[in-house]
Specification:
The protein is 33% helix and 33% strand. The chain has three helices and four strands; from the N terminus they run βαββαβα. The two termini are 25 Å apart.
Amino acid sequence: MTHGVVLISAERDALKVLGSRLAEVEGVSEAWSVTGEWDFVAVIRVDQQEQLAEVITSKLARLPGIVKTYTMVAFEVFSQHDLEAMFSIGT
């Protein structure tokens, strides 16, 4: 699985609706509104690395109201949530 983190700057008029639109994009597992230089963070999870570019350039970045994006690809993922889910299988 490939993970990407996308920082998103949005137009002011889009701030109220963009979070839910981001969350509806196939491949986006989470979308957060945040403070600071960026307005949103989207976490992308896809099976193949090639799908990451497709989700970001063809789906996510074309949403109305997005001004710019900055994408980071994760080398390795560390998550307490994922560990708990893995060990709770069958219990």
